[in-house]
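[Solved] Which block belongs to which protein?

Original post:
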Amino acid sequence: MSFSLKQLKTLKMNEKLTLEYINNEYNLNAYLVKDEFSSYDAECKDYIIEIKNRRKYYKEKLIEANKLFANYNKAQIKNKDFLYLVTDEKGVYVFNISKNIEEIINKKLVPISCEATTKFKNDKIITKYSYILEEKLCKKI
């Protein structure tokens, strides 16, 4: 399936559609991982990729600290870079966490109260610690 960024913005985005778009634009040959409990969504020869599809635009993008460190470590072990892709109504934001790790972790951790998980039914509210990713650290497509 091939579609434009304009079409992408009108679709109800999910990991599969985001990956198809990125593969078409950049010829990555990335694929979704089969393990539903994996800390990341996709990978290819050079990258492990976490995808966050947002329904609305937020100037500041967040990444959970536990995902940042887990995926950064996995990327190092696999000799790959860790990409964090965020989609929203204004576009696709590609953060190369591996190349910006020092700048990111030197920021203050932000506590956020939210549901324990959004993938599985769970009404328990917990505090998740996140880093704010400034748009200057990404490539917007």
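(Second protein starts here: sequence line, then its structure tokens.)
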Amino acid sequence: MCNFNKQNENTKELLHLLISKLAQKVGGANYLLGLIEKMKEIKPNALMHKDRKIVSQKLSISWNKSVFKDKIDVLEEILHTRKSSEGMEFNILDEENAKKRKNILNMVKTLSPITFTITPRDGNEAESFEFTPFEIQNKDEDSKDDFVSINPLFMSMFFCSSTFTKNALKYKS
């Protein structure tokens, strides 16, 4: 999933637009890449950071709920099992194995209320920006018909390398 070169052209263009727009809002590509580099320094994953806030020189990102390793493991398994050629618009609930589907559904229920906020720091006159981990469609009481996809911004910031983001920013159609 996190190999930019293996994405189809439509997905590459979508990623370029989303990440470029985010970079513009927060003050530029270098500010965004600086934040992502800072996030990558935190092991095993920035989502598990106890303060729920990561600060770089020009930006900070914060979120409103702690995330535990079991939920990250489920997300990483989804990202590793999906082919890059599927693009970004795949339904993560599309799982044959009932036990895995239940784990995925529990992870979605746990993480979907989280909101990530990127805010400027120290004289950076850029705008704040918010995003969520998932895009959920057809939400009803019976979740069998739900379509849940991973937000590309969430995926690129927390699970893909900074090279993925750099390639998305540089992409020319």
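Accepted answer:
You had them paired correctly. Confirming on the second one: The beta strands are 53-55, 59-63, 116-120, 129-131, 134-137, 147-150.
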